[in-house]
Design goal:
- With about 170 residues, the chain is α+β, with helices and mostly antiparallel strands.
- Among the domains are: about 25 residues, no CATH class; about 70 residues, Nucleic acid-binding proteins (OB fold (Dihydrolipoamide Acetyltransferase, E2P)).
- Helix content is about 45%, strand content about 25%.
- The protein is built from four helices and five strands.
- The protein has a five-stranded mixed barrel with strand order 1-2-3-5-4.
- Strand 4 and strand 5 form a beta hairpin.
- The radius of gyration is 23 Å and the shape is elongated.
- The protein starts with a helix and ends in a 10-residue tail after the last helix.
- The relative contact order is 0.10.
């Protein structure tokens, strides 16, 4: 299903680019710098505002991970964490390494894991799922397309690069 959505999205993007190229970008008014700056600020600041409520709800096991002393015996689930077979460690999103034992993959990879803390810095794995690199690669391609579209539109708009359209 993911492949179908990706191909459909890519086809739609190509059609829209042809339309924008043929008709130009139609804006009733040019968005101001203030709106852009406010949007970026909110995007960067919003996580700090909701972090306390996320921690209190223990969403994504944030509360357990933050309170080192209360980890022992707690159930934990990690999504898309890097597992190093050589070091027998898993690395949290914060960069903290944790020792890992139990049911594990045969090679280093990105995994989702369910387990139990056996100490403040060790997890016994009960089950895991190895992720392929397609999602990461597809995400990078998608971000590259978005960047290319924005650069193209910036260059095409009048006033950004005045000598571009003569």
């Amino acid at each position: 299903m993911g492949y179908i959505l990706s191909v459909t999205g890519f086809a739609y993007l190509c059609l829209k680019l042809r339309q924008i190229n043929a008709e130009g970008l139609k804006l009733n008014h040019t968005p101001g710098f203030t709106l852009a700056a406010l949007s970026i600020f909110l995007y960067l600041a919003a996580p700090f505002e909701v972090m306390k409520s996320l921690e209190n709800s223990n969403s994504n096991y944030i509360k357990i991970l933050k309170n080192h002393n209360s980890r022992v015996g707690q159930h934990i689930e990690l999504d898309r964490a890097y597992y190093s077979k050589e070091k027998s460690q898993i690395f949290l999103f914060s960069g903290e390494p944790l020792k890992i034992m139990g049911i594990l993959p045969q090679r280093s990879s990105v995994i989702s894991l369910k387990g139990i803390f056996t100490s403040t810095d060790a997890i016994e794995s009960k089950s895991f799922h190895v992720h392929n690199t397609y999602r990461d690669f597809a995400s990078k391609i998608g971000l590259g397309f978005i960047l290319a579209i924005w650069l193209y539109l910036l260059i095409k708009l009048k006033g950004i690069f005045p000598n571009y359209r003569k």
